[in-house]
Specification:
Shape: rod-shaped
Strand content: 5-15%
Radius of gyration: 53 Å
Number of strands: 18
Number of helices: 29
Length: 802
């Protein structure tokens, strides 16, 4: 009969069951669990506080940046365009002075031209003067007849004769100057009375002013436009006249025309309004922005290092605490919990907490500060633009949160389906031989197709909805940009805001929309981390074995006497005792066999002997010392065990043989392997004793059993426990191992649990158990002679074999 070759599988958690976690799982007490997690980081509280401060400072620096970029934009924009404010100041001062001077000049001219007697006398003189042209004389004659005062047709010489010259502020105005001045003023007055508004009216008035100064005599212009100073620069009367002439030619709808005409302004005016970038101020703002973003980078680097340190230390401390907790839990606890569940706490849950502490916590804080800070900065910059940007983003936010709410259930269903499929695949892989033997391929494929289709449906829905998030976020951002540009452009044209405000808002809109997706993602991870934290803390809060620090840790010179004195035991949650009233006396060096049907309590007795469980009544004594008075480690140190279920770990053959046994010589290892018949197999391995046992090294179940028996021989403890140790080997190997075990058990107290009664015929004492009690005891021959329970059990095995 050949043995089934099984590969050595080591340290593998179960693929299904409690160990499989579902993404999106929520904590029952989110706030309380995170308080515990933060308190758990108390040793690294300074690093955590530094990290949070760095996050806030870095985010604030990021938020100040757009505002300063706006200032930089405004400064450059102001430097590359004319200083219209100064031009307005010049225009206002010129208009104020011109208006006052026009009133004064008009009054003086009016007074001079109101002297009727003098004008009448001058008219007669002009009529008689040979210097006056005939046409002027005819006009004067017509004016005298009609009483008209229209002097527009007369020559300058005639006008000078009609009206006497006047002197204003040292400037002499001839008669012709006076008449032309009044005519120009009359034209200006008519234009100012016309209706109009906005740029068209202003442009028309400027053209009229140009016509006015062109019609105005130089002497009158000198009197009307008096010099004034702006920023220390004197604007002469001639410069004022030239400025009006230039400005009257500007087409306000043509930017090139405006810039071309501004270049023709008089030097005094152009020097005040010409474009000039303040490079000192621009450089100062630029340096501040560089320092700002450099500080943000440094803060983020410190934050990343700090959170990574906190997360790794937290993970290390949690793993250490969980590992120490595992050794302090009673064996009864493991009966109610799967290996996969414990492995998941050590790996998945702790890793998820560390990852959330390192990434999600920082992302969440940064996103919240960025969201609130960007909104505040927008309000400070401009309320109208803020309302427009927020209104534009709200549409997308409502749509985004609606999709998130619906997609969450599909993500949870996807993870559930994925866990079911993974578990099913692993289960079928492990039991592939059974499936083949029972022709279950069709059923396995059918179940696989069902699970696979369910995963496809849930995955498709989850990914489709999730795939909409990125386009929606892009839409929110782009739509916000469009609204900011339109509203900002209108406000900028009206002069309500500067162009730099639009630049700032372009960045603030992105800062305002971006964090919401990050907050949602981070909150989901923090929820999962809180759920993982609850499981870890629940595990750490499990009831531990009593403290035994005051008990002796070592038993000196153990002989091997073992007494069972009215032992009673019941498993937690059981309705009745497993061991009712067990008593036995074992002498040093005896081979004690414990036999009985399944469920009789044989393995339970061994577990009680090893103090894996504590007694509910009675005592077990080793050399007269109750095991309850000793540390568990002291009891374990007296026994070496060979169990039916072999246990090998990933390592070399040598490491598995000398597990936790220091200073073992090679001769002792060789002798043990020869004794159990394993030496030939070891020599056939590529590296002999240094061959690593892993999934690629094929060990049969019998070879695994031989290796664990050799391990017990090498450990060389005072007492030995064999629990069906030769059940997985063939008859020939069993005989060879039995001879080796006889040598090993010589002068040692040995407890042998066996179902094949032929292997314990040479036992010094056979204890027959049934329903938790010893019903028979004695040697093999004595028990057969009694013809009782043992005899029936022994004979039934041979009858079955035959």
């Amino acid at each position: 009969m050949s043995e089934t070759n099984n590969k050595t599988r080591v340290r593998r958690p179960a693929g299904r069951g409690p160990g499989r976690r579902v993404r999106g799982e929520k904590a029952q007490d989110f706030t309380g669990t995170w308080k515990k997690l933060l308190a758990y980081c108390q040793r690294d509280a300074v690093l955590l506080i530094v990290a949070l401060i760095c996050i806030v400072v870095a985010t604030v620096c990021t938020l100040i940046g757009p505002n300063k970029l706006g200032d930089l934009t405004d400064e450059i924009t102001a430097g590359i365009r004319p200083d219209t404010k100064v031009l307005t100041t010049v225009s206002k001062k010129m208009t104020t002075g011109m208006t006052a001077n026009i009133q004064s000049v008009t009054a003086d001219i009016t007074v001079n031209m109101s002297n009727t007697a003098a004008i009448h006398q001058n008219t007669k003189a002009a009529m008689a003067s040979p210097d006056v042209p005939a046409a002027d004389k005819q006009a004067l004659q017509a004016m005298a007849t009609s009483g008209s005062r229209d002097f527009s047709g007369l020559s300058d010489g005639t006008l000078d004769k009609l009206f006497g010259a006047i002197e204003i502020d040292g400037t002499t105005l001839t008669g012709s100057d006076q008449v032309k001045t009044l005519q120009a003023l009359q034209q200006l007055k008519g234009a100012s009375g016309q209706s109009g508004s906005g740029k068209k009216s202003a442009a028309k008035q400027m053209k009229t002013a140009g016509k006015f100064v062109r019609a105005l005599p130089d002497a009158s212009a000198k009197v009307i436009f008096t010099p004034f100073k702006v920023k220390g620069t004197t604007i002469s009367s001639s410069d004022q006249v030239k400025m009006i002439k230039v400005m009257s030619k500007i087409d306000m709808h043509d930017t090139d025309s405006v810039m071309d005409q501004l270049d023709k302004l008089p030097a005094s005016v152009y020097g005040l309004i010409k474009p000039s970038v303040n490079f000192a101020k621009v450089g100062s703002i630029a340096r501040f922005i560089v320092i700002l973003y450099a500080a943000s980078f440094v803060m983020q680097a410190i934050q990343g290092w700090s959170l990574a340190s906190v997360a790794q230390r937290l993970s290390k401390k949690m793993r250490t605490d969980v590992d120490e907790k595992i050794n302090r839990l009673p064996m009864a606890w493991y009966n109610g919990h799967s290996t996969g569940d414990v492995m998941s706490v050590v790996t998945n849950d702790v890793d998820l907490i560390g990852q959330s502490m390192n990434q999600s916590l920082g992302t969440f804080v940064q996103a919240v500060v960025l969201f609130i800070g960007s909104f505040i900065m927008m309000l400070i910059t401009d309320v109208r633009m803020t309302l427009a940007a927020v209104a534009a983003c709200l549409i997308g936010f409502v749509l985004m949160f609606t999709i998130m709410r619906h997609s969450q259930k599909y993500f949870i269903k996807q993870q559930q389906d994925l866990g079911a499929l993974d578990g099913y695949i692993e289960e079928n892989y492990a039991g592939h031989t059974v499936i083949k033997a029972y022709n279950g391929e069709a059923k396995a494929e059918s179940e696989f197709d069902t699970l696979n289709k369910s995963l496809r449906r849930s995955g498709f829905r989850a990914q489709c909805l999730s795939g909409l998030m990125q386009p929606i976020m892009a839409f929110i951002g782009n739509f916000g940009y469009v609204v900011v540009c339109i509203v900002g452009g209108v406000l900028a044209i009206n002069g309500d805001i500067e162009f730099g405000v639009i630049v700032s808002f372009m960045l603030y809109v992105r800062y305002f929309t971006q964090p919401l997706g990050q907050i949602a993602q981070a909150m989901q991870m923090l929820q999962s981390a809180a759920a993982a934290g609850e499981r870890v803390f629940r595990f750490l809060d499990e009831t531990e074995m009593p403290d035994e620090s005051a008990k002796p840790a070592v038993i000196e010179d153990v002989k091997g006497t073992v007494d069972f004195d009215h032992v009673r035991f019941r498993y937690d949650g059981a309705d009745e005792d497993v061991i009712h009233d067990f008593s036995a006396h074992v002498k040093p060096g005896q081979k004690i066999a414990i036999v009985g049907p399944t469920g009789a309590g044989k393995t339970t007795m061994v577990n009680l002997l090893m103090r894996f469980y504590d007694l509910d009544g009675g005592e077990i004594r080793i050399d007269g010392e109750p095991t309850q008075n000793l540390k568990r480690e002291a009891v374990h140190a007296q026994f070496c065990m060979v169990l039916q279920d072999t246990w090998l770990f990933e390592g070399t053959v040598r490491e598995n043989l000398v597990y936790n046994t220091p200073d073992v010589s090679q001769d002792k290892i060789d002798a043990a392997c020869r004794a159990v018949g394993l030496d030939h197999f070891v020599r056939s391995l590529p590296q002999g004793y240094d061959t690593v046992l892993d999934d690629k090294t094929g060990l049969s179940q019998g070879q695994r059993q031989q290796l664990t028996i050799a391990r017990a021989m090498i450990a060389d403890k005072p007492m030995l426990i064999l629990d069906e140790a030769t059940s997985s080997v063939d008859t020939r190997t069993e005989l060879k191992i039995q001879n080796a075990m006889d040598m090993l058990m010589s002068d040692r107290t040995s407890f042998v649990i066996a179902h094949r009664l032929s292997t314990i015929r040479d036992a010094d004492l056979i204890l027959v158990m049934n329903h938790g009690d010893i019903i028979e005891s004695g040697t093999h021959d004595e028990l057969l002679a009694q013809g009782g329970f043992y005899a029936n059990l022994y004979n039934s095995q041979f009858e079955s074999a035959s």
